[in-house]
Amino acid sequence: MITASSSPRFSRLAKCVGFTALLTMTSAVQAAEQRIISTDAGSTDILLALDKGADLVGVDVTSVIPPQLKAAKLGYHRMLATEGVLSLNPNMVVGSEHMGPAETVAAIKKANIALLQLPAARDAKSLKENIVKISAFVHSEQQAKPLLQRIDQSMAKVAEHQLPPNSKVAFLLQMDGKGLRLAGQGTTGDDFIHLLGGESLGAHRGYQSVSAEALLSLQPDVIIVASRDMSRSPVAMLLEATPLLKHTPAGTQQRIVAVDGRQLVSGISLEAMDALVDVSAALNAAKPAS
């Protein structure tokens, strides 16, 4: 378990290729005002948890920040305008490995702005690694300790309520006016299912449109529906639009649960871990699968 910046695990991460040099580059920023741009919702989530919200000068369109913060919105993380980024005069940029376009990334490096790009977290281990790297990058290692402990506590709660063996799970995206999409391999929905101990019914890659009849034939034991509109119950909306799902094992055993899709937009984030705990508890409270 990664617990502190002084741990051997932290030291190994800090010594990865290029990362030590990056920390040296940011050491001069430590004493000065930090002006941070986050181009990824997961990175923004971590920075806010590290109490770096006041240092954010810009975020991508998927990032959710408190209304009192005045960070500029920079658009989609794969299509960042060079002028928009540089005009904010950042001295640190944090984002995903998919940040782009290439000319914007090149311009950031040419301007000698410290840049940290990380892969999206797929599980608790990779989320903890991202927290360790970001906390070192912004010199907030001490603030990372409770976050790492929080992840361990969340996973312990989920472990108490793992799904029964061989539970078939359908993770659905609820699209306004565009039907349902079933999560397949390589998606956050698929990762979410595996963390719960279930087996994903999506054998394809990515998200794929699916009909109510197809879902009925799959006979899911559990259905998780993700929606970005939580003003009305996503489960109620799902069953109203596709009443056939009431006749699946998930429907008859009341094991259809909702999750806020905004918590899963950038992989397994801190918010996604909170959602995982909530879904695990909700399924545990429902009738057990036969």
Automatic annotation (TrEMBL):
Gene3D superfamilies: Nitrogenase molybdenum iron protein domain. Residues 1-31 form the signal peptide. The keyword Signal applies. The keyword Signal applies. PROSITE patterns: FE_B12_PBP. Keywords: Signal. Residues 35-287 form the Fe/B12 periplasmic-binding domain. PANTHER family: HEMIN-BINDING PERIPLASMIC PROTEIN HMUT, VITAMIN B12-BINDING PROTEIN. This is Iron complex transport system substrate-binding protein.
